[in-house]
Write a structure and sequence with these properties.
globular, about 25% strand, about 180 residues, six-stranded mixed beta sheet, alpha+beta
């Protein structure tokens, strides 16, 4: 009869590997949460479709905005103004659906996010700026309603909402070329 001996350290090694894998996963998850992928946090006061709501080619989104800066979770200070977009070529229907979502939250005080931090072509325009040269609508993960939480860009937007805008109506768009 042959006797085999299982070393006592083997279960401990397995347990150690499991602990190490769990620790690495937890660290990776916390790193992933520290990077905010959203390009824009906003509250939407009003939306203007151009040339018409039935067949929009461009959109003015009026309200308060905090735009992503660089990597991580840094955002510009929240400001009032407007964003001016045109349809993203090849993704017109997706843009129109997101624009309808933006229209649906206009005037509700709901803070939303859209676009991607990696799509850096979004320009915040001052309320009195001429409506011209629209940016391409940023591709991201759709428009999402944001739960209230203690996060600097959201806190700034809530503070900005409490102050009334002095702009009563948007400027007229530049004539089409």
């Amino acid at each position: 009869m042959k006797t085999t001996f299982a070393p006592l350290g083997q279960p401990l090694i397995r347990l150690g590997k499991l602990f190490l894998a769990t620790l690495l996963l937890a660290m990776g998850a916390s790193v992933a949460r520290a990077s905010d992928p959203n390009g824009v946090y906003a509250f939407v006061d009003r939306v203007v479709f151009e040339p018409s709501a039935a067949n929009p080619e461009r959109i003015q989104v009026w309200g308060g905005f905090a735009l992503a800066k660089g990597r991580g979770d840094e955002y510009s200070a929240a400001e009032r103004g407007y964003l001016y977009f045109k349809l993203r070529p090849g993704e017109e229907e997706i843009c129109k659906k997101e624009w309808a979502d933006l229209k649906a939250v206009a005037g509700t005080s709901q803070i939303v996010s859209f676009g991607s931090r990696h799509d850096t072509g979004t320009t915040l325009r001052k309320p009195d700026a001429k409506v011209e040269n629209p940016d391409v609508y940023p591709k991201g993960w759709g428009m999402n309603k944001v739960r209230p939480r203690n996060y600097p860009p959201l806190n700034q937007l809530v503070d900005l909402q409490s102050r009334k805008s002095k702009i009563e109506s948007p400027p007229k768009p530049a004539p089409a070329k």
